[in-house]
User: What shape does this take?
Amino acid sequence: MTKIVLITGATAGFGEACAEKFAKNGYDVIITGRRGDKLNEVKQKTESSYSVRVLPLQFDVQQKTAVFDAINSLPAEWRGIDVLINNAGLALGRDLFDQANMDDWETMIDTNVKGLLYVSKAVLPLMIEKGNGHIINLGSVAGKEIYERGNVYCATKAAVQALSKSMRIDLLPHRIKVTAVHPGAAETEFGLVRFKGNAEAANKVYQGYQPLSAKDVADIIFYCTTLPPHVCINDLDVTCLAQATVNNVYRSEP
Ligand code: NDP
Ligand code: 8X3
Assistant: This one.
C-alpha cells in the first residue's frame, strides 16, 4: 500500500525538499503551510515529476482550531498517515535578551512549540488507530547549545528536544517512532525570515563555507524512515563539515 507523509512547512526549505524526496520514493504527500500559491506550486511540480498524489492543506500552525479542522476533515484515503514531519518553524530576530522584540518571542513560541504540539495532537489519533507511525521533529543545534542573541529561538528548539523525548516515552505502547533531527546552519529561506527580508544580513551567515542544503537535510530525514520497524534513530545531530559546534564555524578568508 502507498505510504503517506504529512509535512508541515512544505512551501520552502527542508519541508519542500522533503516533499520531493518522499514523492521520489513513492509516498503520497500532504503538504502544509500558510502560502497557498507556494503550496499549489509544490503540488504541481511534485505531481508532474512523480506518480504520486499530493494534497495541499493551507493553515497556520499557530491557529489551534485551524490545525484540528484541517486534520479532522482529511478524506478517508488520506487518514492513514505513516510519517509526520513537524518542520514548520522559524527564528525571528537576533537580538540581545533585553533588546529583543516580545512579538517575535511569542511568534517563535507559538509556531515552534505550540504549533508542533497542535499538529502532533491532531495527527496522533490516526497513528494510534493504525497501530504505528513515525514522528520526525525538527530541532536544531540551537536547542542543544545556546548562543549569544539566540535566547528564545534556542529555547524553543530545546523544548522540541524535550518534547521529542517525552513523546518517545509516552507513545511506547503505540509503536510510534519519534526522531528528533537537529541540523546546523543550512541555507534556506530561514535567514531571510530571521532577518526580516534583509538579504545582506541573511547571506553573511553563510559566507566563507558551504552550509547544509535543504536537500542534504531531506535526504537524512528520509533515511531515518528507511530502517526496519524495530529500529529507531532517536536523536540525530547534523552539521556541514565546516561547523563543529553552534559557535565554531571555520570560514575561508574573504
Ligand atoms: P524556511 O524558512 O525555508 O521554511 C520554513 C517553513 O515553515 C515554510 O514552509 C513556512 O511556510 C513554514 N512556516 C513558518 N511559520 C509557519 C506557520 N505559522 N504556520 C505554518 N507554516 C509555517 O526554513 P527551514 O526550511 O530552514 O526551516 C525548517 C525547520 O528547520 C524550522 O523548524 C527551523 O527552525 C529548523 N531549522 C533550520 C535550520 C537552518 O539553518 N535553516 C537549522 C536547524 C533547524 P509558510 O511561510 O508558507 O507558512
Ligand atoms: C538554525 C541554526 O545556528 O542559525 O536552527 O540557530 S542556527
Summary: DSSP finds eight helices and nine strands in the chain. Residues 140-142, 185, 246 surround 2-hydroxyethylsulfonic acid (ligand 2) (CB under 6 Å).
